[in-house]
UniProtKB/TrEMBL annotation:
The protein, known as: DUF917 domain-containing protein
Organism, as annotated: Actinoallomurus vinaceus
InterPro entries in alphabetical order: S-Me-THD-like_C, S-Me-THD_C_sf, S-Me-THD_N, S-Me-THD_N_sf
One Pfam family it belongs to: S-Me-THD_N
Residues of the S-Me-THD N-terminal domain: 4-159
Source organism superkingdom: Bacteria
Domain (S-Me-THD-like C-terminal): residue spans on this chain: 164-347
């Protein structure tokens, strides 16, 4: 990963962030500074990690609005790495993003550079999700073993939860105590344990998505084709309701159709990420499929905390990784998990369903 790769990576991660994962702009600044100071970062396939090599999954946890304003010190990954090596009694072999979406997809470049380690071409989600247990490792049945959090003040917290659900409860409470923003490692795996338990190729995928947008004279069409996505609506943001509390950003937005979509209204529900898209009370798309709001002209993703009245946008949706469509995947991150009385329907089956 070089300085020249960062613009494409950032755009791709922002798209995969489905509105969450933190601002890519701060991630790019951290990554550029770390590459300049510590050197370029090797990106390696999971197959290149030794079977007994420790993989350190890292991500920021908390409300994206806070993380954008309260920047990390840069020493958090060192504190976490040192603690993990002390607990496991051997060195960490590689860094991995816990979620490829948003800043959590870009910042691992900085964390890997700071630690002098390669970055694995994989992550735990294939997108962004708001809760700790919403990772492929949990769906695959891997034990959470240990969670380590570090904050900007230098506090280090080690948790040994009994399962992923308790990991979310306790880590979220610690995060709130840290000011609603911290760096976290969880589901520390060996190379052998990671095989079949993570989503591979996602760093490369983010780069390819970003490059498709950057290199096209018609970025929205290029993005739709790169993702094989459905455009749910083209229109204008006419209402945004957003609040921060409990370590999350929650709310909704309403988009009024323009052009060929004039007369239509689409409502998107938010919890850090875009969760549900409804039109006249009918489901158009839902988690775990991806829903992203982008600028109608540039196809740049708009994070949930950056949505404003009057923005001209398009809303795209496309299929999630197959692991999320399994029974355990839907029980972990399907619409009912977020409190919606809705059964999951794949977005491709909803494509031609209009009120």
């Amino acid at each position: 990963m070089t300085l020249d790769d960062l613009p494409a990576l950032a755009r791709g991660c922002a798209i995969l962030g489905t509105g969450g994962g933190g601002h890519v702009e701060t991630g790019v600044l951290k990554a550029a500074k770390a590459i300049a100071e510590f050197g370029e970062v090797p990106v390696v396939p999971l197959a290149d990690v030794p079977p007994d090599g420790l993989i350190l999954p890292l991500s920021g946890i908390g409300a994206p609005t806070v993380g954008h304003e309260m920047l990390m010190s840069g020493e958090e990954p060192v504190l976490i790495r040192d603690e993990v090596e002390r607990l496991f009694g051997r060195p960490v072999a590689a860094v991995m993003s816990s979620e490829i979406g948003g800043s959590n997809g870009v910042s691992p470049v900085a964390w890997a550079a700071r630690l002098g380690l390669p970055l694995v071409d994989a992550d735990g989600m294939g997108r962004a999700f708001p809760e700790v247990q919403m990772v492929a490792m949990y769906v695959a049945g891997r034990p959470v073993n240990v969670v380590v959090l570090a904050d900007v003040q230098g506090n280090l917290t080690t948790i040994r939860p009994v399962d992923g659900l308790w990991a979310e409860r306790i880590a979220r409470a610690v995060c709130v105590a840290c000011g609603a923003s911290a760096l976290m490692a969880d589901y520390v795996l060996t190379g052998e344990e990671a095989r079949g338990s993570v989503i591979e190729g996602t760093v490369s995928a983010a780069l390819a998505i970003g490059a498709a947008v950057l290199n096209s004279a018609e970025p929205l069409n290029a993005l739709r084709e790169a993702l094989d996505a459905t455009v749910l609506i083209n229109g204008k943001v006419i209402d945004v309701e957003r609040r921060t509390g409990g370590g999350f950003v929650r709310g909704s937005l309403i988009i009024e159709g323009t052009g060929d979509d004039r007369g239509r209204l689409l409502r998107v529900e938010i919890q850090n990420e875009n969760l549900i898209a409804l039109e006249d009370g009918r489901l158009r798309a839902s988690v775990p499929d991806l829903i992203t709001v982008v600028d109608a002209q540039t196809a740049d993703a708009i994070s949930t905390e950056s949505l404003r009245y009057g923005q001209r946008v398009a809303v795209l949706s496309w299929p999630c990784d197959p692991i999320w469509r399994t029974e355990r995947g839907l029980a972990t991150a399907g619409p009912r998990v977020f409190g919606y009385d809705i059964d999951y329907t794949p977005v491709e089956e909803l494509t031609h369903v209009r009120p």
